Amino acid sequence: METRGIEQMFDFQRLPNDGLVLLLLLLYSPVGLCLMLIRIFVGAHVFLVSCALPDSLARRFIVRIMSSVLGMHVRQKSPRLRDKSTKLYICNHVTQFDHNIVNLLTSCNTPMLEASAGFVCWARGFMELGAISSQDEMEESLRRYSSSPGTLPLLLFPEEDTTNGRAGLLKFSSWPFSLTDSIQPVALQVKRPFLALVITPDAFWLTELMWTFFVPFTVYQVRWLPPVSRQDGESSQEFANKVQEILAAELSLVSTQITKADKAEHIKRKRHSAPPTTTLNLGARPRPPPFMVRSSGAEERRISKMAQQVKEVLPDIPLRIITRDLAQTNCVDTTITNLLESTEEFPVEATGGATAGATSELRPAWRSPSSAAPASTIKPAANCFGKSPVDRHMSLQERKDALYAYARRRYVEKHGLEQDNNL
Questions:
Q1: Per residue in 337-358, pLDDT tens?
Q2: For the domain 301-341, what is the CATH superfamily, name and number?
Q3: Helices assigned H by DSSP within 296-388
Q4: Residue extent(s) of CATH 1.10.8.10 domains in the chain
Q5: Three-state SS for 75?
Q6: Are residues 217 and 73 in contact, defined by beta-carbon separation less than 8 angstroms?
Q7: Which end of the chain lies in a sparser environment, N or C, as judged by fewer CB atoms within 10 Å?
Q8: Which tens digit of pLDDT belongs to each residue from 257-292?
Q9: CB 176 within 8 A of CB 249
Q10: pTM over 0.70
Q11: 195 pLDDT band (50/70/90 cuts)?
């Protein structure tokens, strides 16, 4: 999976980067807010009308006109290709209202596959499946529904998640193609001014509805493609790949192997790649503002000096590891704690001719507390800051010994070793 490819399939920033477009958006904002308030009022009437009228051509026409007032303009191409005998429509997934848009053109049902059933599920136009405990049970329920005479066609989105509709299609899941042997592909394109064309990956559906009411309009273009049938001996995944290629060619997109799970992992990496701002670090110094940052040479000397202090406490840790952690923590004590609590094994640095052969061996790089200082020289920790340099030095020495003891205990517990007083 190419990072660049997956980056192009999702919009993480809703507002435009172009300065002129952003200025136009700011000037439009008062109008957009007024439109949003009016459309919320109109939207309530659209919902009531759709609930009151029975499913028919007249109802779809009225709701479609009222949806245009809400800024949702629906166009369709090649409606004559729609096969009324087909029980399954397969569509690419761009917004959280795709099923509502297709339902304005023809009667169909889209099952709610993940969220719990209830009023919100019904109000959004999804079909409730009832108590479904497994994927196999859900597939069997939908298979029985499709084979029943007189039922409305199913509308499914095999991508199982949304994209921005500009770069490529997520890999089609195979299970929708196991329901029937004939399907009708539906290509959907969405265009919207000012903002990211459609939605950000982790946006809530109600938030997206408010943005739809805010922008001047959102154009949904639906194209019906000829029905596609399964060939003899063709597996469900091969059938899914064939339909994915057909839709990708129709939309001038790339047919990718990126899955819904890859999208979730990509979103998680994007969130964690941002520098943490909420972590509370009581031992670290506050970072200076950008205009007070020291010169690079002075900063390197300061980090190098702190690294030597850490090196005195943990002499077996490579200096590059210490420097890397100090660049993040900016604190000697915090770096020492991080290195002691780390489960990573570091290569031991050579300190002389006798140990030069051990540089390539990987082992936990900790020293025994007994090698740090004689026990007779350790004094109790001071209850307050020492008045003399000797008192402060001995208090620091005890802290070092305590850290050594803690590291040795962690290592023994981790590897299940027996305590050895001679270590």
A1: 778 767 666 665 554 444 434 3
A2: Ubiquitin-associated (UBA) domain (1.10.8.10)
A3: 296-313, 319-329, 332-341
A4: 301-341
A5: strand
A6: yes
A7: N
A8: 998 888 888 887 777 664 444 444 444 444 444 433
A9: no
A10: no
A11: low
